[in-house]
Amino acid sequence: AMRRVLLLGEGNFSFAAALCGAQATHVVATCYESEEEAAGRGGAARSIRRLRDSGAEVVFSVDCTKLKEHFLPGKREFDRIYFNFPHCGRKAGVVKNRQLLAGFFHSCAEVLAQEGEVHVALCNGQGGTPADQPRREWHNSWQIVAVAAGAGFVLSDVHPFKAETIEGYKCTGYRSQDKSFCVEGALNHIFTRGTAPLCFTPVSCQTQLGSQKVSFQVPQVLVDKINRGFLEVNSSHPVRTIKEKLSAGLSQAFPLQNISSCLPLLHHGHPGAVCHSNIFWITLSPGQAPSSEKMSQGLADAALCSCLGQDTGENGQEGCPAPKQFYLRPSLLPHAQAIIEKGAFSPGTLQVLSGPVFRKCRVIPHSMPAFHEMLVVLAVSRGTENSCIQMLVDNIKTTMNSLHQGTSGGKLSISLQEAGSFGTELSDFAAFEGQLGEIRHFLCVGTEPERPGSCVGVIRAAPGESENRELVVVSASLNLDLLAMLLCGISDWRMLWTLDRRFLRQFPEGELRLFKSFSLYPPSYVHDVSFWLPDGEDFDEVAFHTLARRVSGEMVVSIQLRDNFQQAGTGRRSLCYRVTFQSCDRALGCREAAEMQLHLREAIQQHLGVTLR
């Protein structure tokens, strides 16, 4: 197909003339001036003639902020739009030029093909990104990434603009004078469309509870995380690849049985020792609550044991209101325990369970409200558990190292840390695992030999049940999402859940590769919020962070406590938090971020019972 290319703000048309010989490309070259003004420029008349002779279109008096008006509806879709060295002319300052770019990007959104690109060349320092050397102060730059984000574009690539390699190209300069721009160190910024924002329509989901199908409304913060099918047979997602490779490695050392397909998403009853503010409580859709008789029968059928052997009747506890007897599974461990209690395993056989699990957590790096857990369970004779743990870990190490060798050629540092030696600085993942049952070792993986790795898994060993006193049940729980991030060089966990198709395209047929982001230097927006706490009440920080995740559609990357103030005399406490909004995969403009901040202020007043200051 013929590629349609639009050039804006051409001075002497030498850039357009250099492009017009390209194969299968239809060039539309334009400038802001009238034909007479433009043709008077040195060499312009010759370039215009050459363009027209080669079948290109040349259009004059084109305003880059009103592109739709210059082209008929059928002729509007361009695959590429070039704007080299935009400038308002004369001594226009950064604010004027930002406004010009804002108008230009909004206009591009109306005439660019869905997968098209916008190329903007700027002088060194103007863009305000880390690619500029030296970099200007942000307020003194054109802030091109934030300006483009306001129109739905992300910066997907940036590279030097090499004027000397473009045959016959001569940079002109401001339209009001023939003084050329300084092109040394100039950069070409390539923008593409970000995916559309998530629509916040309520989603309901079905799951099997015993012999019954029940449906429930998915918590708002998880709507894009439920039923994504990353571990399904036809998926090429890195978490599935890693799970398959680990399973293949383990199956060479142990007989292996996969039991992942039909595990219910909901648990019932009391979550044992788990802190209630970490749990996503669920209310079944009206008319869905199974009768208690059917329920208890169903629970036995589904190996849906009340978590950690606690009594299912204990619902009167604080933070877990009686009607909310259901919650999204925070771990696959109870399913494994149910299998063990039923004696439905043969000693020496490795049982592998995998699937997404859900936990409310704080907004800090590597802390995720949903991730894919792989749980490996093995019953062994008492006294052999240590050598079995070593075998298991060695096997996982070998697989991980060969995968890492394939993506980045380096060696991983993988270590087992004794549970007692871990100090107080546990990651949220490790701290939560500690609530589920005694941990023997933490499995830590790092990409740099000298630095301590992050905790990606835990290993437990528990004595078997009454008839199986001679057995010890060894289990290893792995966070597949953290492993995918380490192996593929993905710095932000949210990228694993992106709806942008460019993510999975980088892993054809599940091949693991180093990930290259399609959204570079995403802009971030900082807002402070402070409020009075209700008298004598503790503040649930996890609830606050979960609310921020929900209101922003997971666009909050950091929440820092800035100030904790107690008023003399009244004893009232006030907290001030700094909230940073930033997306990893789609365009987030300053307007949208400001709206999120307003929604957050309303929501904390409404849901957390605090008084805004």
Short description:
The chain has 14 helices and 23 strands.
Notes on the structure:
- The chain has about 625 residues and is of the alpha+beta class.
- It folds into three domains: about 5-195, 3-Layer(aba) Sandwich (Rossmann fold); about 205-285 and about 325-505, Bira Bifunctional Protein, Domain 2 (BirA Bifunctional Protein, domain 2), CATH 3.30.930.10; about 525-610, Alpha-Beta Plaits.
- It is built from 14 helices and 23 strands.
- The chain has helices spanning about 15-20, 35-40, 45-55, 95-110, 145-150, 240-250, 290-300, 335-340, 385-410, 430-435, 480-490, 500-505, 540-550, 590-610; strands spanning about 5-10, 25-30, 55-60, 80-85, 110-120, 155-160, 185-195, 205-210, 210-215, 255-260, 265-270, 280, 325-330, 350-360, 370-380, 415-420, 440-445, 455-465, 470-480, 525-530, 555-565, 575-580, 610.
- It has a seven-stranded mixed beta sheet with strand order 3-2-1-4-5-7-6. Strands 10-14-15-19-18-17-16 form a seven-stranded mixed beta sheet, sandwiched between helices. A four-stranded antiparallel beta sheet has the order 21-22-20-23, covered by helices on one side.
- Strand 21 and strand 22 form a beta hairpin.
- Helix 6 (about 240-250) packs across helix 9 (about 385-410) and helix 6 (about 240-250) crosses helix 11.
- It is elongated and about 95 Å long.
- Mean pLDDT is about 85; it is low at about 290-325.
